[in-house]
Amino acid sequence: MEAERFNQFVQLIESVHKSVNKIKLSIAPTLGVKSVHVFWLYELLAHPEGLTAATLASKSKIDRSLISREVEELRAGGYIEVAIGGGEKRKNYNARIRLTEQGRELAQTITGYAMAAQLAADSGVSEEELQAFYTTLRKLSNNLSQLAEQPKALKADAV
Question: Is the pTM for the entire model greater than 0.85?
Answer without folding.
Answer: no
